[in-house]
TrEMBL record:
Gene: LOC103547899
Name assigned to this protein: Olfactory receptor
Membrane-topology annotation of the record: Multi-pass membrane protein
Major location (coarse): membrane
Function field: Putative odorant or sperm cell receptor.
Stored Pfam families: 7tm_4
Organism (species): Equus przewalskii (Przewalski's horse)
Amino acid sequence: MTLLSSLHACLPPGPNMSHWPESNWTAPQEFVILGFSRWPQGLRGLLFAFLLPLYLATLAGNLLILGLAVTDPALHTPMYFFLGALSAVEVAYTLVLTPRMLAGFLLPPGGHAVAPSTCAAQMGLFVALGGSECLLLAAMALDRYLAICRPLYYPQLMTTGLCWCLLASCCVGGSVLALGLTTAIFRLPFCRGGSVNHVFCDLPAVLVLACGNRDLQERVLLAACLVLLVLPLALILLSYSRVLAVILGVGGAAGRRKAFNTVASHLTVAVLHYSCATAMYARPLSSRSLEEDKLVSLIYINLTPLLYPAIYTLRNRDVQGALQRAVSHRTPGTVRQADVT
């Protein structure tokens, strides 16, 4: 035993230090996603039958919005550019998580095994897409702020080039954070086996299996929450508070109603997204229950993405009109560049 190992063995383990000896620290050959494999088979079958239609409806709704935003010239404005991008992110997010979760309901008890590289890829894609969505919601709030509070300068400010730059920045920002978090977690040794008590390779569920001092990884996770949750949410609330002040102070009743409906839709989606993300990840490992996290994941994986297209289409006349034109094959109309609906 080296001098460093001897000194390390004499130190008491901290709150995030493993009590397992270093001889048991290994890199697992596979991770086993437990999911709900310990639940009765009949209940798992009912969950599969209930969640499969939600999955298909989520894909259909978001693909519909994406298709309308791309094909209908009346929706070729910055607001619908970002809405189409948000739907594309939701489609990718759903495809990354939901199929494996649904398959887990049909497998025999014991969960299903995945290679470490597959687990890392799933975690990285989840963080990248979720992070991109957080930043994209902030970009949408900025767009509405400029459209309503700076209408005279809006066409010159929110150009097509700026829209693409904002979208690229959101994707790059989410991807960089995902790469950093995933690398930080998978560089740790593991001493508690590879059984992941979750429906996918979520960050906390994998991090609790790690050995050694996890303080750095927890700090990185909390810092990412600060960057992806607190700062964009502050920008969103600041932008929409200014937008609401302008809406209530100027314009006619019809214009105020249309603008308010748009802001209400965007704000509802932002509150849903950030409340779920904050409840899941802005907490230390010592204060969380993986069983509770697993149950909450059913909401943000299956229900929240389904609500987004419903919120945008039910309260948005432009999207409803585009859908009617697509069904009836009529020539689409035009909307103003600074349309606030």
